[in-house]
């Protein structure tokens, strides 16, 4: 998934049209276990048995990645590149405030420093369990909820994923996934500002799960 995150960052910067879906591997998610269910929401977690929060003094937080290109035909006003940048920047600020408060923040890798990577994307799940098989833009999830459309027989969902790694070795320490159904997503999100507010909450929840705070 780290290679996928890198592709997201390039795509969001407008430097590549390469399809990021080719990088997804459902086997990467076999380690995740369902830990909570709410109406329209499922939360999955993996914690390394060797991970201890007290072993780390700070966290280096990568920018949040949104898989959403500009789209002029969505809703009344569309989604511009400027709107995507504004939403992502506000979410980054909120996320870093949480990291600073809960862990202490670092701006470079080092001993006893963890690294946090977070991504928000649409995802198509294979079957009833949690085996992602295709990544899609966030807007695809909204459209599917409105039209009832499916992709390969499955409705896309919103996935908020947080990974915590050792900043030096790259070893995975923890992972949290916040999965929102298309219907729940459409009910709660009716504007970019509402998405920014709710997605920031979902990101914080995913980080808390990945780091063992909840």
Any chance you could write out the topology, listing elements then pairs?
Blueprint (H helix, E strand, L loop, with lengths): L1 H11 L20 E6 L2 E7 L10 E4 L3 E2 L14 H22 L2 E2 L6 E13 L6 E5 L1 H10 L9 E10 L5 E9 L1 H7 L3 H20 L3
Parallel strand pairs: 3-5, 3-6, 4-6
Antiparallel strand pairs: 1-2, 2-9, 6-7, 6-8, 8-9
Helix pairs in contact: 2-5, 3-4
Can you describe this structure?
With 214 residues, the protein is α/β, with parallel strands linked by helices. Residues 1-18 have low confidence and may be disordered. It has helices at 2-12, 81-102, 138-147, 182-188, 192-211; strands spanning 33-38, 41-47, 58-61, 65-66, 105-106, 113-125, 132-136, 157-166, 172-180. The protein has one domain (25-211): Double Stranded RNA Binding Domain, CATH 3.30.160. The protein has five helices and nine strands, in the order αββββαβββαββαα. The two termini are 23 Å apart. Strand 1 (33-38) and strand 2 form a beta hairpin. It holds the Pfam family DUF3313.
Give a quick precis of the structure.
This protein is an alpha/beta fold. 33% of the residues lie in helices and 27% in strands.
Q: What do the pLDDT scores average to? A: 82
> Which term fits the overall shape?
globular
The arrangement of helices and strands along the chain is HEEEEHEEEHEEHH
Query: What's the story with the biggest beta sheet?
Result: 9 strands, mixed
User: What is the number of helices?
Assistant: 5
Instruction: Fill in the CATH topology.
Output: Double Stranded RNA Binding Domain
Instruction: Give the tally of β-strands.
Output: 9
User: Could you say which structural class the secondary elements and strand pairing correspond to?
Assistant: alpha/beta
Distance between the termini: 23 Å
Strand content: 25-35%
In CATH terms, what is the architecture? Answer: 2-Layer Sandwich
Low-confidence stretches: 1-18
Text of the CATH class: Alpha Beta
């Amino acid at each position: 998934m780290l290679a996928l995150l890198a592709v997201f960052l390039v795509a969001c910067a407008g430097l590549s049209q390469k399809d990021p879906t080719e990088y997804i591997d459902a086997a990467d998610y076999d380690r995740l276990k369902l830990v909570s269910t709410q109406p329209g929401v499922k939360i999955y977690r993996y914690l390394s048995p060797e991970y201890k929060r007290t072993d780390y003094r700070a966290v280096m937080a990568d920018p949040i990645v949104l898989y959403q290109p500009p789209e002029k035909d969505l809703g009344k006003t569309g989604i511009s590149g400027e709107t995507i940048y504004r939403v992502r920047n506000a979410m980054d600020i909120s996320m870093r405030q949480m990291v600073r408060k809960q862990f202490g923040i670092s701006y470079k890798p080092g001993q006893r420093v963890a690294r946090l990577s977070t991504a928000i994307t649409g995802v198509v799940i294979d079957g009833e369990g949690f085996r992602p098989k295709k990544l899609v833009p966030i807007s695809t999830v909204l459209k599917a909820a409105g039209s009832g459309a499916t992709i390969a027989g499955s409705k896309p969902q919103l996935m908020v994923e947080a990974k915590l790694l050792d900043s030096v070795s790259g070893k995975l320490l923890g992972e949290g996934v916040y999965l929102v159904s298309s219907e729940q997503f459409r009910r709660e999100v009716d504007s970019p500002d509402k998405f920014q507010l709710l997605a920031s909450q979902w990101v914080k929840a995913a980080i808390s799960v990945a780091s063992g705070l909840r």
